[in-house]
Known about the structure:
Layout: H1 10-17, E1 24-27, H2 34-43, E2 48-52, H3 56-62, E3 68-70, H4 77-84, E4 90-96, H5 131-137, H6 140-151, H7 156-169, H8 175-186, H9 191-206, H10 208-222, E5 223-233, H11 236-250, E6 271-273, H12 283-288, E7 296-302
Parallel strand pairs: 1-2, 1-4, 2-3, 4-5
Antiparallel strand pairs: 5-7, 6-7
Helix pairs in contact: 6-7, 6-9, 7-8, 10-11
Bound molecules: S-adenosylmethionine (SAM).
S-adenosylmethionine (SAM) is lined by residues 5, 7, 29, 31-35, 52-55, 58, 73-74, 96, 98-100, 123, 211.
Amino acid sequence: xxTEHVPVLAREVVELLSPQPGAIFIDGTIGxxxxxxxxxDRIQPNGHLxxxxxxxxxxxALGPTPFIVSQTNFVTMQAVCDAWEITGRVQGILLDLGxxxxxxxxxxxxSFRALSEPxxxxxxxxxxxxxxxxxxxxxxxxLVELFRNYGExxxxxxxxxxxxxxRLDHPIATVADLIECVQQAYHTSSSDVLAxxxxxxxxxxxxxxxTLQTTLAAALTVLSPGGRLAVITFHSLEDRIVKQQFAQWxxxxxxxxxxxxxxxxxxxxxxIVLTKHPVxxxxxxQTNNPRSRSAKLRAIKKI
Length: 303
Ligand SMILES: C[S@@+](CC[C@H](N)C(=O)[O-])C[C@H]1O[C@@H](n2cnc3c(N)ncnc32)[C@H](O)[C@@H]1O
């Protein structure tokens, strides 16, 4: 089936990554291949594009491509690039985080409008724990932390308590079951609240935040000097990780103990931040592709 995913901030990604003929590029989140194809076209002739995609169904849907795609989580980037013998030679890396429009249609509960779908939320089907497993088996304390830390929900204990009561009678199995719990807990099932609940479950199931943190470090190692990394995030938790990591890499403040009379660390910036503020989709893009509304793009250049 052809992809329905429209690449977000496509022109801006190309501008910031500045792909040149003959370059080696990595797309860490191949999805429907939209960004990858744009980058591929610009690194020809003689360019190479390597990809990561953890969803086997996305890779099948992609069909034949000129890219080499690893069916793994991008958290393996360092090891896989070592095996491909491209570490230190990569001129551009893109991470377009989150899920694709195609994944909303794969029957795994990614859309809270698909009421009868199982509450799965795995991007990588080889993971053993689904969202339903987490909600049915997690302690109430764990659920409170999950909704607080990953969903930034107010009064997360209300939802955790309703879930704990609900599962005494029957397991939470479908999208409709979780919506009913949200309704009981907050007397609303507005899209805003559901989006936070779904975000929390998705982050937990796919371990999204810690893999991002690890992968940013790997990306810096894999890049060649002058190489660029661009990251598109879709919620504030991801954006904060990227923003803080970029700030730390570009920071030149001395880290020596204050009692030392002379600086020994000679700290130097590792990157130049190319986006002082995050790049947001134009009003036109937001209208044409509502999914782009929460996107933020940040980029750096390795020194
Ligand atoms: C927003 S979509 C990318 C869309 C793509 N840029 C395009 O133009 O079609 C994110 C894709 O990355 C994949 N993905 C998300 N996190 C990943 C990770 N940690 N490792 C590998 N793939 C990941 C998802 O399965 C999904 O297919």
